[in-house]
Amino acid sequence: MERLLVLNISKKSLIFLLFYSSHLFAQEYSFNGHLKTINSFTRYSSDDSQSQFDLKDSFRSDLNSRLNSQITEDAFKFVLQGDFVASGIENIAKQKKISDQFAPGISRQFFISDDSQFFDFSKTISEDGDVFTNLRLDRVFLHYEHGKFSTDIGRQALSWGQGIVFQSLDVFNPFAPASIDTEYKTGQDMALISYSYDLNTQINALLVPRRDVISHDFESDKSSFVLRVQKRFEGTSYETQAIIAKHFDEPMIGLGISTTLLESVIRFDFALFDPDQGNLIPQAIINMDRSWEAFGINWYGYLEYFYSGSGTSSSNYSDLSERLLKKLEQGELFTLAENYLTTGFKQEITPLINLYELVILNLDDNSTLSQLKLTYDLTPNFTILSALTFGLGASGDEFQSLKLLNGGLLGRGDSFLLQGNYYF
Question: Which CATH number is 320's domain given?
């Protein structure tokens, strides 16, 4: 155990040593970051089963400091980005008990873990009651470019889907549909090789190695192997992408198409999974968005439909399929039903103030999840963000309160968030 600990520390120390010494010889070197204070309050309904644990509301406060560094030397680029998070979560022990009792198949993550990553670049520095501090390297990768070839090896972020709120092809740490702060996608350990066949065609080969969270052994059936071809058709507005993959233990194929129509962009992503050798499960999104000017301000709006073949159409959420629970646990899906319709708008009230509205409608039980968000650039380096998220529906609906096997109700609650971002 001591030898393993020394190796783990040496590995991290070597990364820092190579990075911070090599910048002395680099042609280009950049350094920036941010400091964010995030405060959120959640209120649960009076008939919620969480009241059994005297949990009628909860408060969470986070301090997030991120440092971003990049070194460029000829055809090489090395990126190192780290997060330090200090969190105070009211009644965290009660929340863990609630998660264990009412949702044993779905773990409740209070901070980002590297348990399934190929490299463990995270460390809980301290944990004292409801307060803990965590340090994590979110980007550690080397980029090399030569002619038509390029490689990216290490922890990085990758987005291949065309979804606005939901995702069909983007299965690598997608954002949750009602995510408020989407500035940084969580980094994933991977190796990417890209080849530009011509100006309009690119071929990608991707390996995402993962470990078993219990044994910590590398396992191929928990990893992803992907081949992707992206093509733009010259002289038209059409773009396509095709994917063939083995994602965890499931074969997967996918197709994406986008084009413009009447000043709008229309996108379609379709994925087909084969978890049981013949029991094909589809997943798809179709959306359109556009910008316009009205009432003297700039507007942006979109409409998106999402179909999840893993979801249930019966509105009975007390008995979910094993596959859906697995997708929820892996952070690929965040919803329980099959059919969703989403619409959203953005208004640029002034060049410094932006207002956002989001409504997600569960077409199977007619419940809705709504969000109002406001951003204000107080100075060129300081932004204030606030958001109100709330659900509407009957008892037992997904976005109101789920019915449990014991007859109780478990709700997501209505929440308010206030965040300040300082950039340097």
Answer: 2.40.160.10
| Domain count along the chain | 1
CB burial string 187-209: b at 16+ within 10 A, e below: bbbbbbebeeeeeeebebebebb
Which segments of 160-297 does DSSP mark as H helices, in order? none
pTM score, two decimals? 0.87
Strands (DSSP E) found in 365-413: 368-379, 382-392, 401-403, 409-411
- Give residue 3's pLDDT: 35
Please list the ranges in the chain whose pLDDT falls under 50: 1-10, 14, 17, 21, 24, 105-107
Segment (H or E) for 92: helix 92-102
Report yes or no: 168 and 306 within 8 Å, Cβ to Cβ.
yes
Question: pLDDT tens digit string along 256-306?
Answer: 999 999 899 999 999 999 988 778 999 999 999 999 999 999 999 999 999
In whole angstroms, give the CA distance from residue 269 to residue 286: 7
* SS3 category, 10: helix
Q: How far is CA 182 from CA 22, 392, 418, in A?
A: 31, 24, 15
Tell me the three state secondary structure of residue 301. strand
Whole-number Å distance between alpha carbons of 146 and 195: 10
**DSSP element (H, E) containing 252:** strand 250-261
